[in-house]
Amino acid sequence: MGRRDVVQALTAGALAILLLTPAAAAAQDVTEPALKAAYIYNFAKFTEWPADAIAPGAPFVFCVVGDAAIGEALVRTVKGLTLANHNIIVSYHPPDARPPEGCHIAYVSGTTSTQTAKVLAGLRDTPVLTISDLAGFTQMGGIAKFFFEHGRLRFDIQLAAAKRVRLNISSKLLTLARTTK
After folding, report:
1. What stretches of 64-138 show up as alpha helix (H) in DSSP?
2. Looking at domain 32-180, what is its CATH homologous superfamily?
3. What are the pLDDT digits (tens) for 132-151?
4. Residue 168 phi/psi, 5° resolution?
5. pLDDT at residue 71 is higher than 80
6. What count of other Cβ atoms lies within 10 Å of the Cβ of residue 27?
7. Of these four, 25, 32, 36, 181, which has the most CB atoms within 10 Å of its CB?
8. Buried b (16+ CB within 10 A) or exposed e, 149-180
């Protein structure tokens, strides 16, 4: 191998390292709120709401109850995006506030079990995809619950709760979930 070949090989290797380093660094910079926000947005993409749930021209509303960090991450995640031709807005609600109205997705975290039960009761029988990371959430009537397993973010889906509020969750999403009937 000549000197020119060695220089080209070293240059190619250095270039590969420079190109891959930012990607690896960016991957390490993903925070738990950013990861959950991305999942929440993708849940919305793979869920179908009844025709009467979102008026034409109305925004698609993501409500966050109790966890400001998720709310901020969700704002960054959905900035400039639409969902089924609807602009997306994110609305934050403190844990002790009345159950939010006008939501299509409600993420609940950083709340007590009493506050969570109050939110779920206030949303009962309305087509709202309820999501949380709180223990017992799906047993209380919530639809999706985040959990970590072997260092990876996973989720449960409570199909009966989704069907009760007339939400159709894509089989593509269900194949990734732990589902209960």
Report:
1. 68-78, 113-123
2. Response regulator (3.40.50.2300)
3. 999 999 999 999 999 999 99
4. -110, 110
5. yes
6. 8
7. 36
8. eeeeeebbbbbebbeebebebeeebeeebebe
Residue 99: what pLDDT? 72
Could you tell me if 91 and 116 are in contact, meaning their C-beta atoms sit under 8 angstroms apart? no
Beta carbons of 113 and 84 less than 8 angstroms apart: no
- Over its C-alpha atoms, the chain yields an Rg (Å, rounded) of 21
Q: Where are the alpha helices (DSSP H) in the chain?
A: 3-28, 32-45, 68-78, 113-123, 159-164, 171-174
DSSP state, 33?
H
- CA atoms of 164 and 146, how far apart (whole Å): 20
Predicted TM-score (pTM) of the model is 0.81
Give per-residue pLDDT as tens, 144-176. Answer: 999 999 999 999 999 999 999 999 999 999 999
Q: Is 133 helix (H, G, I), strand (E, B) or coil?
A: coil
Cα distances (Å, whole numbers) of residue 15 to 12, 21, 31 = 5, 10, 28
Domain boundaries defined on the chain: 1-30, 32-180
Three-state DSSP class for residue 21: helix
3-state DSSP assignment of residue 157: strand
